[in-house]
Amino acid sequence: MSSVPRRWLELRARSSATADRSALVADALIARGARGVEERAGWYVAYFEEPDDPEAFVAEVARSLEDDTGIDSIRIEFGWQAHEDWADTWKRGLGERRVTDRIVVHPSWVEVSEAREGDIVIVLDPGMAFGTAEHGTTRGCLRLLDGVVEVGDRILDVGAGSGILAIAAARLGASDVLAIEGDPLACEALRENVDRNGVGDRVQVRQGLATAGTLADEEHVSGIVANIETGLLSPLFEGFADALPEGGWLVVSGILEDEWAGVRDGLEAQGFRFEQLDADGPWRSALLRRTS
After folding, report:
1. Which of 111, 209, 234, 272 is the most exposed place for a label (fewest CB within 10 A)?
2. Average confidence (pLDDT) per 10 residues, the chain, 292 residues
3. Can you say how many angstroms the Cα of residue 48 is from the centroid of all Cα atoms in its chain?
4. Do the domain assignments include residue 1?
């Protein structure tokens, strides 16, 4: 069991940009490692593990937000929140969401209002992990997985976070899913969600960071899903290609609109053929196939 932080740095950011552009601030905070982001009275409120030098960390985040979003008038404030207050904080704003015709995601404290015959209902408590149906990258991956997972598939979920994609893959028919996640706190939530959804016999959790080399060591893989930021995604391209047989599929996300062309070029250089793109706000998720 990992140690739990005593308190969390609460960072608040707001800008005078339009609503569509301001939403990029939330995405940039997640890319910087925020445990969760909520919109509150015009502010985006994010939570980070306590840094060694809080003021230097906040200054660095402020600079990176302007660089990542292109918005030059972002106001930043910060404070502290005790760990025990987190359970109530991250529940705000989460509810039932139908992502596809048959995939419904809801937190454990909310009942599904209109479950239909044939629905795949996923109960998800993200806890300290990234991955809810409230984020465009997660929704994009779920929509693509719904159309590509086949019964009996063996799947890798790289950067599994809350486990939502690994669970969805298992519920869609995959017989063996390896969920790889480097963050110990996220792994706690991941294991709990796997058990909560009754897929512990099909989803294995591995704590550790995936590399091109470790991915290449995997065998008999039907497909890979990786919802991680582009800077972490790109070094894995060769590993994805080595792990997948001809015809194997790859779903990638965490990609901003202006990053997609470069990601596509990099994957095609490794022998992947582009098949489908899912756009959700500024985010892009893609399905590709391994060629010979």
Report:
1. 111
2. 64 80 80 77 84 90 88 87 59 72 83 81 72 77 96 96 94 97 85 94 94 92 93 93 96 92 97 96 93 84
3. 16
4. no
